[in-house]
């Protein structure tokens, strides 16, 4: 039988630890993203609004885990929360794609 990490109790301990450490930044991202979506009025479907806000929160959790591993300040998580919340997931994706293309062209 293949190894299923979701059945391993240590997996859930890691997930809960990540949520505890980054929960405030994730909540801030979710709230900012949802408010920006409401203000723009472009997305009218509630499920899509919730999914975009949740994606933003997950991105901030990943950033939070990354900055912790590199020994940077947790303030980077809050900076990312504001960035993602105000600009949105799609805009952040486009900026990341342009940055990656520039880096690939330099190589």
Q: How many structural domains?
A: 1
Range of strand content: under 5%
Give the CA-CA distance, first to last residue.
Answer: 43 Å
Radius of gyration: 16 Å
- Helix/strand-derived class? mainly alpha
- Shape, per Cα inertia axes: globular
Topology order in helix (H) and strand (E) letters: HHHH
> Count of helical segments?
4
Mean pLDDT: 83
Main sheet attributes: strand count, strand direction, barrel closure: none
**Poorly predicted tracts of residues:** none
Determine the fraction of residues in helical runs and give it as a percent range.
Answer: over 70%
Number of strands: 0
Keywords: Membrane, Transmembrane, Transmembrane helix
Organism: Pseudomonas lini
InterPro entries: Phage_lambda_GpS_holin
Protein name: Holin
Report on the structure:
82% of the residues lie in helices and 0% in strands. The chain has 107 residues and is an all-alpha fold. It has one domain. The radius of gyration is 16 Å and the shape is globular. It holds the Pfam family Phage_holin_3_1. It comes from Pseudomonas lini.
